[in-house]
Amino acid sequence: MAMKKRKLPLVYKPVGFLLGWSSGALAGLAFRKAWKMIRHEDNAPDALDRDRGWGEIVLAAAVQGAIFAAARSVADRTGAKAIERSTGVWPAEDRRGRD
User: What keywords are assigned to this protein (predicted)?
Assistant: First the structure.
């Protein structure tokens, strides 16, 4: 069983990469739709956009960050559950001090 745990992160890496990439793409789409609902604009402000105020730039960054973090967490958890179902082993270290 210990050998299986050591090798599993290598197996998980491509799965994690694909899930991370796809979650980032979906998060980008979700952010664009959310920004359009919030501000009724197609383009969110950039930090270097001279014509936008601090509040608008920080709001856009906070919304974008929250969406990306949520999407990444969903992708990571989905991948981990899939690996656990197929191998019977959770693909990360046990952080509770047990082996």
Answer: Membrane, Transmembrane, Transmembrane helix
Q: Which tens digit of pLDDT belongs to each residue from 83-99? A: 889 888 888 776 665 54
C-beta of residue 74 within 8 angstroms of C-beta of residue 19: no
Distance CA 14, CA 38 (A): 35
Strand ranges, E, within the chain: none
pTM exceeds cut of 0.85 = no
Nearest-CA neighbor of 39 among 59, 62, 65, 22? Answer: 59
20 backbone dihedrals φ, ψ, rounded to 5°: -65, -45
